[in-house]
Design brief:
alpha/beta; 3-methyladenine DNA Glycosylase II, Chain A, domain 3; TIM Barrel; Rossmann fold; eight-stranded parallel β-sheet; three-stranded mixed β-sheet; 17 strands
Length: 447
């Protein structure tokens, strides 16, 4: 049961040292209770209190780390049923499947293809994270060889899929350094797979034929000291699979069932007869509530919309999507090119930059930090005031890149033109169109 802020406060050192980033221990306790702070931020909490607080403040769904290094990824750690209640934290991990008997030539081709699937969006690099190596025929040498090559020659993290403990051990020996997910312990293999996962400190997936059958297997593995578990209810029929995802999430969050408080793994690749349906099912699990979604393959037309869906769902609804403040070059601008300024709301940036790019007019686009607000909202909130815009232009460094003094401001912020002129003495401040769709024509006539 989660502790209240006051209960947490009683276990804290009460030094008010401010080293955690807030003024008082009470404020820190309230942040800890609401999930806005981590216990590690307090440097003086006692070991006894840390043990009590770690258990009480742990997310109802345990976060599980897969992989190592710069591409390390995390699943689980969720605290709410619905995104608008707070936020979702760790995006659904996307995996493709590679069979263990694949030839070297075909594997090389697949890795080249998979590595090319990445997209820039809102200043982020969007890409899938996992490759599942599936055992075919029980050939442990072939399984290990394929897993090792993926681990050593790509940045993808790995899921090892086999029912044979000897094959799994060969896979772990080959790529254990990459911290793969082992899939999957069942009632029959829990002892062998559990021992292997514990010995190598690796995350382990658990599979059964139903949620009810899953619970005793999970309890057994937890009794062995395993904590980093991923669960699979075994459902491969669409309706039942969705019901299981919701039931598991509700049991963990609403009923406090720690046995089901783990991220889930889902298999659209085993539930569809064609790639289009597989992508649709994967999209369902991204929203409800797959921790990992395994597909048969990666193709741009399927992965790109899934990555965008994931980005939207796992973006904090209380914090607008933003781009970094600064100067953006579009269409190779030079010292005589147009200068535009707008806010750092991601949607504003992408609409404006897209229209400018389509115009073919070389342009310097200045993005001012407005705390993620759109032009009208930022202006109304005082986050895009004329004097602030003028100061930003001075500090941005754009004056070192151009030989003119002409700035175009958004049409919806026309009211700030006078204040910008006062701050930028000698500059010509031009009010641009209100709608971004009118930018191409405006830019072509105002070069």
């Amino acid at each position: 049961m989660a502790l209240t802020g006051i209960q947490i406060f009683k276990l804290l050192p009460k030094t008010n040292c401010k080293e955690c980033g807030v003024p008082t221990c009470l404020a820190f306790a309230m942040n800890l209770a609401s999930g806005k702070a981590e216990l590690d931020a307090c440097p003086y909490v006692s070991d006894e209190a840390r043990e009590k607080l770690s258990e009480a403040s742990a997310p109802p769904i345990r976060p599980v780390v897969i992989g190592k290094g710069v591409r390390e990824c995390k699943t689980g750690g969720e605290t709410v049923l619905y995104r608008h209640e707070k936020t979702f934290f760790n995006p659904t991990l996307l995996s493709a499947t590679v069979l263990s008997d694949i030839s070297d030539v075909d594997l090389d081709a697949k890795l080249v293809k998979f590595n090319s699937i990445q997209y820039e969006r809102v200043g982020l690099n969007l890409r899938p994270e996992l490759i599942a190596v599936k055992d075919i025929g029980g050939d442990k040498d072939g399984f290990a060889k394929t897993a090792e090559k993926i681990a050593k020659t790509s940045e993808f993290n790995i899921i090892l899929i086999t029912e044979d403990a000897d094959v799994m051990k060969a896979g772990v020996d080959a790529c254990g350094f990459k911290r793969p997910l082992l899939y999957a312990a069942t009632d029959a293999t829990a002892d062998a797979f559990g021992a292997l996962a514990k010995e190598n400190d690796l995350p382990l997936a658990v599979k059964a034929d139903s949620i009810e059958a899953l619970i005793p297997v999970v309890e057994k593995l937890m009794g062995m000291g395993l904590k980093d578990l991923v669960i699979d209810s075994g459902a491969r029929e669409l309706k039942q699979a969705l019901e299981d995802q919701v039931a598991i999430r509700r049991a963990a969050l609403k009923a406090g069932n720690r046995t089901l408080g783990f991220p889930t793994i889902t298999f659209p690749c085993e539930m569809a007869s064609n790639p289009d349906m597989e992508a649709l099912i994967a999209a369902m699990f991204v929203s409800k509530y797959g921790g990992i979604t395994v597909m048969s393959d990666f193709s741009g037309e399927a992965v790109f919309p899934l990555l965008l869906e994931r980005l939207n769902i796992f973006t904090d609804p209380q914090r607008p999507m933003t781009v970094t403040e600064g100067i953006y070059e579009i269409n190779n601008p030079d010292e005589n090119s147009i200068v535009l300024v707008t806010t750092n709301f991601a949607l504003t940036y992408f609409i404006v930059s897209g229209e400018v790019e389509a115009s073919k007019v070389p342009t310097w686009l200045l993005i001012k930090d407005s705390e993620g607000l759109s032009v009208m909202t930022a202006w109304a909130a005082g986050k895009f005031a004329g004097d602030d815009v003028g100061i930003f232009v001075k500090k941005s460094g754009i004056m070192d890149k151009i030989k003119h003094q002409r700035l175009i401001i958004p049409g919806y912020a026309a009211a700030i033109a006078g204040d910008v002129e006062e701050e930028l003495a000698g500059w010509d401040i031009v009010v641009g169109p209100r709608e971004a769709a009118h930018l191409p024509g405006f830019l072509k006539t105002n070069k």
